[in-house]
Amino acid sequence: MKKMPLVLIMFLIIIVLISGFIDSARNSDVHGEHHGLFISHPVYVSKDLSDGGPSLGSGDKTAPKDESAFLADNIKKSDEMVARLNSTVVRLNEEGNDVQELEQMINSYALLVSEAKEYLSKADASSSLSDEQNYLVLSRDKIILANSELKGIFDEMQTYLPGPVSISGNDSLNVKGSGIVILSGDLDIDFSLAMGKFSIVDFAGDLDILTDEIYTPEIVSERAIPSVDPETTQKLFSYVDVQGNVTLSGSDFTVAIMSDDVSLYVKGTGEVELYGNGSYYLDNAIMDKEGIWISPMFDID
What we know:
The protein has helices at 6-17, 40-43, 63-94, 100-125, 129-148, 150-158, and strands at 165-167, 172-202, 208-214, 221-226, 233-283, 289-292. By secondary structure, the protein is of the alpha+beta class. Strands 1, 2, 3, 4, 5 and 6 form a 6-stranded antiparallel beta sheet that branches. Strand 4 and strand 5 form a beta hairpin.
């Protein structure tokens, strides 16, 4: 059983949190070490400034205005992220955690965002096109640096969260609640949604998906994801705005489910991560276990 790389998990959750499919994803690190997941990271979806922004060509007089709007959107999202991160630090500190290092990382990120905003203000106030372009370049460089620091911040936050629920052998797990459920492994899963979204990555290629009992059974998107072996790929399936019952069975896959009301029964060998509000009951051959879902560090938008 492969463990799900963090980058690929985050990509999955981005898909289920928005109501469409992200046209492209960076897969250069999708086979990195598994570190689990928390709800905060995927909520922040920033435009890619490093290679997707408007051109700043000097011959195009409309380019600075396009770039200014593009940067303003990214800076607005970054400001919202700063507020979320600071709120999370306060909460973690109140719970008795030592957050000094995390706080320093967030302050560094916030400073870069502030500098990007300051350069953008100078660009908007510039009377000459060349000055405007220069300030836009400086603003863009700062927000790129800020975005590059988010991974380290999220990795540090991850250390404050408990691990997933593990199941094996003849174990069975019953889950009910509201939020996001991540399941990875060799599993047989039956779940029902009042209304929700889910995405699946099939590593082994033997996944059976039964969606006869949902109202919108069409696959919203299907995607091939490169693997370590260049001659093989994993399939990703995404469904949105569905309600009803779904059955999944396979030897090696991961599914991310988001719903305000989800009930789930799973058997097999693997890991389950639960973020939101709900409870679970693990029927184990040695000892039964009850528990609650992990409270999200950030609210689900």
